[in-house]
Amino acid sequence: MNLIVMLPEIFLMIGLYFITIGLWKLREGIERKKYVTYMFTGLVLIWVVPKLFSTLLMVFSN
After folding, report:
1. Could you tell me if 48 and 38 are in contact, meaning their C-beta atoms sit under 8 angstroms apart?
2. Which of 18, 47, 50, 57 could form an SS bridge with 8, CB 3.0 to 4.6 Å?
3. SS3 letters for the chain?
4. Domain count across the chain
5. Of all residues in the chain, what percent are helix, strand and coil, respectively (each to 5)?
6. Element (H or E) spanning 46, and its range?
7. Could you report the per-residue pLDDT of 4-61, keeping only the tens digit for each?
C-alpha cells in the first residue's frame, strides 16, 4: 500500500530527471530532437501521469 502512495512522488522525481537531461542537451546545442523528447516526457510524468494515477486510485479504491 505504501508503494501506491509513493508512486506520484516517484513519477515527479523521474520527470524532473528527464527535464534536467533535456536542459543539458539544449545547453550543449546538439541533438535538439532529444531535448524535445526529454522535455515532453518529463512534463508528462510531472503533470499528466500523477493526475491519471490519482483518478484511477480513487475509482478502484471504492
Report:
1. no
2. 50
3. CHHHHHHHHHHHHHHHHHHHHHHHHHHHCCCHHHHHHHHHHHHHHHHHHHHHHHHHHHHHHC
4. 1
5. 90, 0, 10
6. none
7. 778 888 899 999 999 999 999 888 888 888 899 999 999 999 999 888 887 777 777 7
Q: What are phi and psi of 3, to 5 degrees?
A: -65, -40
- Tell me whether residue 44 is exposed, middle or buried, using C-beta atoms within 10 angstroms of its C-beta: 0 to 12, 13 to 18, 19 or more: middle
Residues in the chain: 62
What is the model's pTM? 0.80
Coil, helix or strand at residue 10: helix
Rounded to whole angstroms, the Cα distance separating 42 from 33 reads 14
Range of the domain at 32: 2-61
**All cell numbers assigned to 35:** 531535448
